[in-house]
Amino acid sequence: MAGLSVGECLMAEITYLEAVREALVEEMERDENVFCMGEDIGAYGGAFKVTDGLAARFGEARVIDTPISEIGIVGAAAGAGHMGMRPVVEMQFIDFIANAYDILTNYVATARYRAFLPCPMVVRGPSGGYVRGGPFHSQNPEAGFIHTPGLKVVYPATAEDAKGLMKAAIRDDDCVLFFEHKYLYRRIKGEMPAGDTIVPIGKARIAREGRDVSIITYAATVWKALEAAEQLQTEDNLSVEVVDLRTLAPLDDDAIFATVRKTNRVLVLHEDTRTGGIAGEITARINESCFEWLDAPVLRVTAHDIPLPYAPSLEDFVLPQTSDIVRAVRRLAAY
Amino acid sequence: MPTGGKRKAGTGNGEPGTAGRRGSGNGKRAESPGSRFPVPGSPSGSDRASARLTRDQKLDLYYWMRLTRSLEERLVALYRQTKVVGGLFRSLGQEADAVGSAYALERRDILSPLIRNLGSMLVKGATPLEILRQYMAKGDSPTRGRELNIHFGDTDRGFIGQISPLGDMVPVMAGVTMTFKMRRQDRVGLVYVGDGATSTGAFHEGINFAAVQRLPLVVIVENNGYAYSTPIEKQTAARQFVDKAIGYGVDGLQADGNDVLAVYDVTKQAVDRARAGGGVTLIELMTYRRKGHAEHDNQSYVPPGEIDRWAAENDPIDRYLAVMRDELGASDEEIAALDARVAREVDAATDEAEKSAPPEALDALVGIYADPARERPLWFREGTDRAVDVNERAEGWGTWQASRSASA
């Protein structure tokens, strides 16, 4: 992927995965109420080794191996949250969060509103495709949760954001679903800012400044968008702005509307499937609030509405690729 | 006259799965309310925890059961006057199971009730005024009109409000008791489920997790014969619910849920064990749901005569009255005084609750998250123009004019 950090000073750089781990370690050091729960996260360190070394450092009482029970561990996290703990729960793959859909949407999301019960907790897990994971190890189920009032959803694209947003998520007083893109885990590196740096939930980031067309996206497709922007600059002399949403619930309307008013042409891009995906919501908001600022219809590049297949030729066809983005931006520019 | 009040609990060996089949037929549901339940695992005679209750405490049990029933009867009247705006759920015939079990907890312990555990909540400090305001959707109800019936909680007083999807409170209470364990607190959790909820994934995952972690949690399965209209024969192929304890590797106990002292005994035993580090206990309380799932339910699915037989022969309050007279020497005057106290309290709470106003509509926007503390109303909602200015009207909405909107 383009956009990998190629800074001169590599020694301070860590991977996206290590950034998540650093945040967990620092937060567990800072606050004894923070603890981790999940399947195989203890001695084994988790399926992707995000929690590697945590059990040795903090003990099994704070890095808890659980039965295969997504309802059980999410529910237990809620109960612990009520009592003042700050649990961080791992879904071994975020696909399995579907098992906990009831308890997340009916119980956790409503707890503060219906019962004034605080429910601080983070549900985190490896998400997304481009890794030949097939239908059950590649999903992006975020849309189902941004539809539920009471939950917050973040999905970082950079190592810096992975760390800063994780720290913010752990300190948030409500439930935050923390999607980590497994394609980025070891491919993306970043230099961590010094000290205890928080990336606020609810704030988007301009990943690349531009004048002609905006791409609004998040997670792995941020890097696809940056790659496309580079190509369009070179081949078409188009100045493309890339907005990395970082947080999906609540959406940063100000940042979305600002980029629309700046370029007047918008592509919404995501790796999730098309129908009912977040791109539809963003498009509707732009339509309602920025209609007169548009010089072209808002377009979407998304995955096809197909369960994600395994074979590289099939997966690559279903998921959005850089060439799709280039094609869509050219159509917007020519409108 | 009730006959069960004088029966002593059985003297089983404490192993789950050894309870005798009760009733006739398939052995899962007491066909005859006159049949009594052998109660393995329950202590007997002077070993009973209830033998250590004072006379006042034993009269207390009656007070809570009577208060539960009278409060529900008042709610029925208010329901018929359409002052209860949602559904009404009765615990008629199950008061002993709720009161006796909650009475076995300490103040610092936490329980999570089920829809028929009004009595448990009262014992834990919920007030009739709160219950009435909640049912009548008042603005000063415990949930400010957000939730229905007895769905509310207070962790300070030691009860956590349930939600409607059944079984979910088992993993939640596993988390509550996990916190007790992590903080080395001398506290116990109690969670109630019905016979139906034992079929859910949440129940299974929650009790299994709690068992593995050896948490101080007591799980009470209230077997009242029906889950909505579904009899237990269609709920499980297990011979009895207490048998499920074996599969989870936890202690299993069973008791006559209409005998308030037996309920207290068996719950106290499990609570003491949990407090001592002995882990999870699953208790099956045998009782009977004499009203429908909710007030609208005509119970057409119940065999003729079944409800009447339970009402006549196995009412928990009638049974306990016999105990009070025979064993505590309670006089008619003493009992009448307790009844009068309950009636006074229910009347006073009703008068007070009726005075309360409904919630302000805009309170609907408050408190979905800690941050932001309130949501903004949608622009098309009349009377919220000021909010529109800061919300939907992004800068550059060229044709939008505040004056036009205000006059529209």
Structure report:
The complex is a heterodimer of chains A (335) and B (408). Chain A is of the alpha/beta class and 335 residues long. Chain A is built from eleven helices and 14 strands. Chain A folds into two domains: 13-191, Rossmann fold; 205-334, Rossmann fold (3-Layer(aba) Sandwich), CATH 3.40.50. Chain A has helices at 16-30, 54-58, 70-82, 101-115, 142-146, 159-171, 220-236, 253-263, 278-290, 312-318, 322-334; strands spanning 13-15, 34-38, 63-65, 86-90, 121-127, 152-154, 175-181, 189-191, 205-208, 213-217, 240-244, 247-249, 266-273, 299-303. In chain A, the strands form three sheets. Chain A has a seven-stranded mixed β-sheet, sandwiched between helices. Chain A has a five-stranded mixed β-sheet with strand order 9-11-10-13-14, sandwiched between helices. A two-stranded antiparallel sheet of chain A has the order 1-8. The radius of gyration of chain A is 20 Å and the shape is globular. The model of chain A is unreliable at 1-10 (pLDDT under 50). With 408 residues, chain B is of the alpha/beta class. Chain B has two domains: 15-355, Thiamin diphosphate (ThDP)-binding fold, Pyr/PP domains (Rossmann fold, 3-Layer(aba) Sandwich), CATH 3.40.50.970; 361-407, no CATH class. Chain B is built from 13 helices and seven strands. Chain B has helices at residues 55-80, 95-102, 118-123, 128-135, 169-182, 201-212, 244-248, 260-275, 306-313, 316-327, 332-355, 385-390, 402-407; strands at 110-112, 189-194, 217-223, 226-227, 230-231, 251-256, 281-286. A five-stranded parallel β-sheet of chain B has the order 1-2-3-7-6, sandwiched between helices. Chain B starts with 54 loop residues before the first helix and ends with a helix. Chains A and B meet through helix 3, helix 4, helix 8 and helix 9 of A and helix 5 and helix 6 of B.
